[in-house]
């Protein structure tokens, strides 16, 4: 069974590039990637914060947060 990875982003150019570069590469046999657009699904901001996400784009895999570059702080998405 594949491990879940959540990719949080806000739709900015940095986020879209990270999705194209990393999310599709991870999705497959080892990981099942869920993509969450926080600009469109603000109800999940609390979930992202609780997981430790400070800025997007970011992955949460196995409880660990991996921030990729810097597109936007979560506070800017509120």
Description:
The protein is of the alpha+beta class. The chain has one domain: Glutaredoxin (3-Layer(aba) Sandwich), CATH 3.40.30. The protein has two helices and four strands. The chain has helices at residues 13-26, 45-51; strands at residues 3-9, 31-37, 55-61, 64-73. It has a four-stranded mixed sheet, with helices on one face. α1 links the parallel β1 and β2 (31-37). It is globular. The model has no long low-confidence stretch (mean pLDDT 91). It comes from Aminobacter aganoensis. This is Glutaredoxin.
Task: Summarize the helix and strand pattern as letters.
Answer: EHEHEE
Structural class: alpha+beta
**Residue runs with pLDDT of under 50 for 5 or more positions:** none
Biggest β-sheet strands, sense, barrel: 4 strands, mixed
Helix count equals 2
Give me the CATH superfamily: Glutaredoxin
Radius of gyration: 11 Å
Q: What coarse outline follows from CA principal-axis ratios?
A: globular
Level-1 CATH class name: Alpha Beta
Number of strands: 4
CATH structural architecture: 3-Layer(aba) Sandwich
Strand order of the largest sheet: 2-1-3-4
Tell me the β content: 35-45%
Mean pLDDT: 91
Write down the domain tally.
1
Secondary structure: helix percent: 25-40%
Distance between the termini: 35 Å
CATH topology: Glutaredoxin
Protein name: Glutaredoxin
InterPro entries: Thioredoxin-like_sf (IPR036249)
